Amino acid sequence: MSRASRPAQGSLTLRRRVASLLRLAGGDLADAQQLSKAGSRNAAGLLRAAIGRMITAVLASERGEADSAAIAPRHPLRPRLQALEAALPMREPLRRDGSLAPASEGAVSPQLLLQAGAVLHQLCAAFGVDRDGEEPAATVAPLRPQAPAPPPPAEPPRPPPLRVVAATSTPAAKGQGRGRRAAARPAPSPPPARGASVSKAPAVPAGLTSSAFWTLIDRWQVPDGPALELLGHDGGLTRKKTRPRFKLTPAEAETLQLLQGLDTSLARLAQDPAKWLRQPLKVAPFQGTRPLDWMLRHPGQGTQDLAQHLLQSALRASLKGEGAR
Q1: Is the pTM of this model over 0.90?
Q2: 198-231, pLDDT tens digit by residue?
Q3: Are 116 and 23 within one domain?
Q4: Are 39 and 109 in contact (CB under 8 A)?
Q5: What residue spans carry the region label Disordered (predicted)?
């Protein structure tokens, strides 16, 4: 909302009148809210008085009329004031025969009270009235809708993109191009200086050693050559065809952890690992393949498949009370 272009202040008497009317409307509205909570039919009369005083304050800034229909059509709050008037209950809670109407017919809804309070708040803000103060209104200029903001200026048309014509290549130009490409290549980074920090590979957890691996293999009774294949170790046996002692890589340590987990699951199921590794598994996805052969054919993933199979066997055993086979 914006004020018209007439003088922003107005006469002191008129500004006092507008402020007083809005303060009285605020008191009527507060009393109406209290009576409405108590279920009194008199709340409607106070609400009617509050709305009437708000209309009178608006008309005082317009032309001194006393009806909402006389408010200028351009006034931004005219539709809301008229809607409040139309929503009010009957002026007097009396029937044609002179008897009092039921209290429900003159009741005021909380929603109507909230709407009236919102209009009063807008009027006080527009006229600059402090409802708890005693000063006159800051202005009594009639309210008008805000002018729409001008549209943003249109962007100037962009020029068409420039067309670049490639030059005809010549042997000399090709040689220059090769020289430019060679110059554009980044120079190889120099080796790290002595004493400079170099990023290290992830450390292998303690206990994951070749000795722990061979201890597991002895329990499983797997030959040394296939055992190294299970681990993914490329070194093979020593020249004397004996077991090598070596430091596990991170990948080998991860595989050993999988094998140890498989061994733990077999122990919980009271299975002899040496026998179980050589018994064909008829369930999918093994389809009659022995566990040891499955792991050798599918490095890494084969061990995970067997671990999942043992987990399912343990669940079935706990439900049926039987040992896994």
Answers
A1: no
A2: 556 567 788 889 999 999 999 999 999 999 999 9
A3: yes
A4: no
A5: 142-201
**151 domain-assigned:** no
Question: Which range of residues forms the domain containing residue 15?
Answer: 2-92+105-144
Q: Is residue 103 within 8 Å of 41, Cβ to Cβ? A: yes
Residues 128 and 245 in one domain: no
The two structure tokens encoding residue 14: 């008129």
**Crossing angle (nearest 10°) for helices 78-87 and 43-62:** 150
Can you give the C-alpha Rg of the chain in angstroms? 47
Label residue 35 exposed, middle or buried (CB < 10 Å: 0-12, 13-18, 19+). middle
Residue (of 249, 245, 176) closest to 214 by Cα position: 245
CA-wise closest residue to 306 among 285, 321, 325: 285
Identify whether the C-beta of residue 243 lies closer than 8 Å to the C-beta of residue 209. Answer: no
Q: What is the pLDDT of residue 242?
A: 92
